[in-house]
Design the sequence.
């Protein structure tokens, strides 16, 4: 998916800012824009391994408000992250996150549009962890495309998550987790390209995929006949 004008403005401004050496771009918008091209995403997620001050990110936010001609700007601190909400005819959310996890990255970061970006493997691990940690349909949607378009296997996603976060999930839980979000896919309509009919077809396809793969896993691993 192409970036919106506001998202592009934010990334270009970051590339010209001293913050470009402290923050890297990650999250759903990067996944959709650079790797999977599968849906729209409205946020810009910027992570830093170094502590940062509110003053330095607020200077960036105020400049983005000015250059992007936003009419309003709100911000709030949530745990280890600052969230900035820019409002106009096109809205934008930018998050600055202090991320000092021991295993910060699985792959070296490259540059895109003048800023450092997370690898597909790192985003896949983050998405898989989020998939277990919260009940949001966008995570299930992204996992589906990581499996079917990026060609990860469930085992590979789980291994990446274990490597990065030190948390192990089994494949049985991986498939059962999908049933928490399948009924919520309709909420993603504004983010999924295509006609209403095409979106409905895709949602049905995703639902069928997880149900079928769950059944296959169950049959393969949990319903083996007992040895005589």
Sequence:
């Amino acid at each position: 998916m192409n970036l919106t004008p506001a998202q592009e403005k934010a990334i270009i401004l970051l590339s010209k800012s001293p913050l470009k050496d402290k923050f890297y771009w990650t999250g759903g918008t990067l996944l959709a824009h650079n790797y999977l091209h599968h849906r729209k995403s409205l946020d810009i997620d910027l992570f830093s391994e170094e502590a940062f001050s509110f003053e330095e990110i607020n200077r960036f936010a105020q400049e983005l408000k000015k250059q992007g001609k936003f009419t309003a700007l709100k911000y709030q601190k949530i745990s280890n992250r600052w969230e900035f909400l820019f409002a106009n005819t096109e809205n934008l959310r930018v998050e600055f996150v202090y991320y000092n996890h021991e295993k910060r990255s699985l792959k070296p970061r490259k540059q895109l549009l003048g800023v450092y970006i997370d690898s597909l493997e790192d985003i896949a691990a983050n998405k898989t962890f989020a998939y277990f940690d919260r009940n949001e349909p966008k995570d299930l949607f992204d996992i589906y495309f990581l499996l079917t378009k990026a060609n990860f296997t469930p085992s590979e996603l789980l291994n990446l998550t274990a490597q990065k976060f030190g948390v192990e999930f089994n494949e049985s839980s991986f498939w059962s987790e999908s049933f928490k979000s399948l009924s919520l896919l309709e909420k993603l309509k504004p983010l999924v390209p295509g006609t209403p009919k095409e979106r409905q077809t895709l949602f049905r396809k995703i639902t069928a995929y997880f149900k079928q793969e769950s059944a296959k896993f169950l049959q393969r691993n949990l319903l083996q006949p007992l040895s005589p």
User: Anything to note?
Assistant: The longest helix spans residues 196-221. The first strand starts at residue 23 and ends at 26. Residues 122 and 171 are 19 Å apart (CA to CA).
